[in-house]
Design a protein that fits this description.
- By secondary structure, this protein is an alpha+beta fold.
- It has five helices and 14 strands.
- It has a four-stranded antiparallel sheet with strand order 3-2-1-4, with no helix packed on it. A four-stranded mixed sheet has the order 7-6-5-8, covered by helices on one side. It has a four-stranded antiparallel sheet with strand order 11-14-13-12, with no helix packed on it.
- Helix 2 (107-118) runs parallel beside helix 3 (143-164).
- The radius of gyration is 39 Å and the shape is flat.
- The protein starts with 9 loop residues before the first strand and ends with a strand.
Length: 276
């Protein structure tokens, strides 16, 4: 019953500070429950169950498996006995054994054994819906031989299914729309053929390639960042207007190339530019 609390269930509630508190139930007796911890539980407090042990146990112990329906068919021809295993996707595995097999003395018993053993799919992904066996002469086959035939049929059908499987999902159609910026400059970072094709396919005009491909890049903006060196050093004019430092700030990279740092304190933006 989903409305009944049981031993081992988890419960929770909001305390007077609106904090979610949880505990578990040690024991139930008639209409009484005995929580592991009653701290914060007061008259009028709403109790919620957040773990249903009975439901969880049923799920844990449930024997629920998805299997593929299959059918067994056995026929006899001049060439021998044909054992067929086919699924609902029209995949079929066939095994033929020689006609030279001893005739069963007890045909009814041998036929029943054949049907029962061929239908035992065990822990495989298949289960047998029907076993259709129509023979002029019921052969005597040992249980071990029948099991061998069944295992071979199962493995063969498994391989055929894998070979014939076709995905139901086609190739995804990519909708190409125009790029929102029509005229591109170095900030688009177009450096190779792939990036060039990307923008051209979207009807954008390439006015300038990436700065790395250009020789003359004096006084060019290479970065705009919300990260601020002044804020990092504790000299942000908004936070500490007293401290003042000589500007402009200059940055050096590993190739000893200098970059000019500009600050737009109104918009809290730092810009880095190449020097003249």
């Amino acid at each position: 019953n989903s409305n009944v609390l049981n031993t081992g269930d988890g419960i929770c509630f909001f305390n007077e500070n609106k904090e979610l508190i949880g505990t578990n139930i040690n024991k139930t007796e008639n209409n009484l429950i005995f929580p592991n911890d009653i701290k914060g539980i007061k008259p009028g407090v709403k109790i919620y169950r957040n773990y249903n042990k009975d439901f969880d146990d049923k799920l844990l112990n449930a024997d629920i498996t998805r299997k593929i329906p299959a059918k067994i068919k056995v026929r006899q021809t001049i060439a021998g006995y044909f054992f067929c295993l086919f699924d609902n996707d029209n995949n079929c595995a066939v095994i033929m054994i020689s006609q030279n097999i001893e005739k069963a003395l007890n045909e009814e018993k041998s036929l029943n054994t054949l049907k029962v053993q061929l239908s035992k799919m065990g822990n495989t992904e298949f289960y047998i819906e029907t076993a259709d066996i129509k023979l002029k002469q019921i052969p005597y086959l040992k249980v071990s031989k029948i099991n061998e035939i069944r295992r071979a049929l199962t493995e063969k059908l498994r391989k055929i299914r894998k070979k014939n499987y076709k995905s139901k999902y086609g190739k995804q159609k990519i909708n190409v729309i125009d790029y929102p910026i029509k005229n591109l400059n170095c900030k688009a970072n177009i450096l190779n053929d792939k990036s060039m094709q990307f923008y051209k396919k979207r009807n954008a005009q390439i006015g300038e390639y990436a700065l790395e491909s250009q020789e003359n890049i004096c006084n060019r903006e290479v970065m705009v960042s919300k990260y601020c060196i002044k804020n990092q050093l504790g000299i942000c004019p908004k936070q500490n207007p007293v401290k003042k430092y000589k500007e402009p700030f200059i940055l050096n990279d590993e190739f000893n190339k200098e970059y000019l740092v500009e600050f737009n304190c109104k918009d809290c933006v730092m810009k880095i530019k190449t020097k003249n």
